[in-house]
Structures
1.
Amino acid sequence: MGTETFAASVADRHTGHRLTIGTFAPVFALRFLVSAGFYSIIPYAVFLLPFEESTNALTLAALLIGGRLLAWPIGAWVDQSGAKRPIINIALATTGAFIASWIWTDGWIFLISVIGIAVLNPLTNVALRTLVAHRSAREDHTQVYGWLGSVKTMGIAAGPAMSGVLLLFAPVEYIICLTTALCALSLLTAFGLQDAQPHPIGIEQPDPALSTAGDIRTKTPGISITLWFALIAQWALIWCCLYTLTLSVAPYFDVKFADISPAAVFFVVQSLLSAALLIFAGHGMRNLSQKALGFVFSIGAVLPPVALLLAGIWPTNLPFGNAIWLSLMLAIIISVSEALTVPTVDTIAATQSKKTTGRRFGQLTSAEVLGMALAGAVAWFITRNPTVDAMSSSWVLSGTALLILATVLSFTTIWSMKKAWIKTG
């Protein structure tokens, strides 16, 4: 990229010309379609893979974990090739595999298609966040990332809903048709992406706060290693709490309230509320500085352990439905946490210099695996003794331990903010 071209790109991204939300319509549509496709098939894949059901479950878990672990090298691929080409390649292969598995009804071909969508989902997650980092102005990052997180949440809710409606009229095998259609639409949408080349090595990235038309002053932004690892650890901790609730809230409601239906209330309300709050939070934080964003992220990261602690101390003698009130409180806390953390951590990662943006997002996605693994251990600890007193105590102990860890990491992040952009991480 020549000097004049780069200067024009700078003027487009950091001065009066602002990219609108409409510019990212293909990005939002693609994020929704891939999430819906992934979650339309994954809950039922255990019945369609070619092994025994127990082996199918282990295979599926390995594929899901492997897909997220691949996010780090996927990020490097996106940094090198841009976002559009990798998505088109994997979406094309995945769509073809699903079509073949439907035509020949072969479990092994279906396994290949599941591998494809297990890679496509984290690839889309990393690639689209990287694309937003390169295609939008710095002051628009939180808003666009808020929308991106919102449509992802809508897709997560829509996929199982569409599969559930389909199962009312057709056997489980027909879900392959639904997922194939969603993957095909994802492929077509990917062709509409406006790709952007990563920042070339050796050219300093302009500081949006200092850049003005005709007078571009630059510096190389970056965050310290300490701060970046604190952010990654906090992100893993958030996912640990989310998956602990996912795995343990229904058994807990069954033991404590003899009713598991409020668990469904928690998941539905949390999804809808998160989708709405992400948009409002992203818009509201548009003008915050990097340090303020780090502070907001740290506050949001402390909330999920509070939800675990609240579940343990929640009384059983409240009027108007104990379990419903608890499920609503948990949903509100988790939704607020997502609204405060998703746009902020994405914006912080997007502000990195040179050609490391995709790697940053890949590292965040791979860190989610650590949170999921820890959640499995915490969920086992909570449910190992299915009595009210034992489970309540386990919720309290787990919530307290994770809250202490989250608080320490939050203070580390806030303290590191003073030196955050002195050297590149």
Note: Confidence is low (pLDDT under 50) at residues 1-18, 198-220, 421-425.
2.
Amino acid sequence: MKTKILLASIIALLWASSASAIVNIENQKALWPKKGTSGALSLSFSQTEGNTESLDADFSSKIDFVGDENRSFIIVKRYYAETSNLASDDTSFAHLRFIFSYHNWLAYEAFLQAGRSPFLSQTLRQLAGGGLRFLVAGSNASYAQFLGIGAFLEQEKYDDGSTREDILLTRANIYWRFKLAEDKDKFSLNNTVYFQPALIDAENYRLSNDFKWEYKATDTLSFFLSLAWKKDNQPWGSNQAVDSTVKNGLKYSF
């Protein structure tokens, strides 16, 4: 059964896509997960009618495989939005990661990611990389801070109908994560900062900050609020340098 789930997830990874340059994986990663196989499914939906007509739908799923010292997980997401019956966004994203624990305070990571964002003229974005992850403070699920240092090889393809460009470069990947949880994780706060400069051009960098609050109503149902801010110092074409997003919804875990 586990093999079938993993194969289906890898197929999804190869065909899925990504909405933004920096995707926050840290806030979606359990700090000390239980051994075995587990999953989570999240869905949010909003609709406005009247003088303004709009529709937003957001779906995400995650499967974790946890062993004694090693761990792997896959995340698949899809987002769709339309205004006045015209699609304004239709993106998805998938990420596969392997984590190898060396000490309680040190782990090695390797990951693959694939995607596209047609409304940003991005026809393909794929990357492969790895790095080190350090536990710098805290030692349990209630409080912890992590520092990640690594790099990845990135390929991006753009096409706006008149101009095509294929960009291949290596970026450093530096992140800091803070988590605080109370009442056996019934309430939790997560904040993650990413900094990803190109190794050959320090002026070509990407920066983001992601905040998430979550409340567990039951063992399987929770509500969340997330705030995201992202900056691409050298956006492609006419794309904006800064994006910000506010989301709220519910998550079902099994």
Note: The first helix runs from residue 2 to 15.
3.
Amino acid sequence: MFGWLKKRFARRMSGLINGAQMATYLAICRSFGADDAQTEERRSALGKRAAAATNFLFGKSPSAEHIRELDLEIEHASALRWLADEQPYRELIVQSLRIANVAAYASSGKVDGILGERVLSRYGAEFPNALNPAEYEELLNRSIAQLTVRQQEAVRRVIQSSGANPSIERRHTTP
């Protein structure tokens, strides 16, 4: 692949994956009850747990704050339990990890480990076919559609700010 084409592909996919991470984070927050938390302190604590879960599911290293303040073994187990119950997000995460690993290889030309190996080993066989970029965008659209309109707009802004220039559709499935 030409260098500029690889960079363009990597930038576009990175932006879409950022959107997938944000959509997942918002879905986990909702599942953990952060949307209904009575105090800002409780909402913040649940948001921190959701962020740690999202980082883990997307193969990201935990932040220093998460290492310091959370029991990551418990949080990772909680993330896997959440993922077991959330088929649409399970597919989104598996496909995101596949694309992230391909993009990392395309950028560097080497493999320094597999992002999200634990999630891919557990759920990768459930979704045996890798998606092309258009199919991945459609999967992301379906996942975003499960969020509130306000959350959908926030995810779209994150994707657009990355320069991914996707065709993310506006869907009104939840209030």
Note: The CA atoms of residues 12 and 72 lie 31 Å apart.
